[in-house]
């Protein structure tokens, strides 16, 4: 396991050295950032689908999309706050998310419920796939952050299953 510690001097607190603990390596920070970008994008695409779905079982899918959006928002906040706890800088700016997400764009306009289910299930699977792709490298450096990825994977796969299990018409 690679562990990096750093000392930081604070003029406000005087000349004594302050141990800030574990600091994310650039690769750990980068891997967590990739997952963060996909979670932010999932949140945005989920809301876009939520606003624009039409068709059979509209209300059920509308409500499920809200659950997915809430979960993605919460998970992105957890990952970003973990990054800050490790003295890394999360970047949720739209240009960064657009440039680094692994999720394809969502079509514009109204989306039939059946198509929305397929599109969102694929995006949920994409988030889980991205988290799996960086998991081992993250776990090698920081098992605590890897535990957060486990939750992202489990939740994304559960929602993908829920989307596919329903008969949306």
Q: How would you summarize this macromolecular structure in one to three sentences?
A:
The chain has helices spanning 26-52, 58-85, 94-100, 113-141, 143-165; strands at 5-10, 14-22, 53-54, 111-112. The protein is mainly alpha-helical.
Arrangement of strands in the largest sheet: 1-2
Number of helices: 5
Kindly estimate the percentage of residues that lie in beta strands according to DSSP. Answer: 5-15%
Radius of gyration: 19 Å
* CATH homologous group name: Ferritin, core subunit, four-helix bundle
Q: CATH first level: which class?
A: Mainly Alpha
User: Terminal Cα separation, in Å?
Assistant: 50 Å
* Mean pLDDT score: 90
Order of helices and strands: EEHEHHEHH
Q: How many strands appear in the DSSP assignment? A: 4
CATH topology value: Ferritin
Estimate the helix proportion, in percent.
Answer: 55-70%
Largest sheet entry: 2 strands, antiparallel
Query: Which architecture would the CATH scheme give at its second level?
Result: Up-down Bundle
Our count of domains comes out at 1
Descriptive overview:
This protein is mainly α and 169 residues long. It has one domain: Ferritin. It contains five helices and four strands, in the order ββαβααβαα. Strands 1-2 form a two-stranded antiparallel sheet. Helix 1 crosses helix 3 and helix 1 runs antiparallel to helix 4. The N terminus is likely disordered.
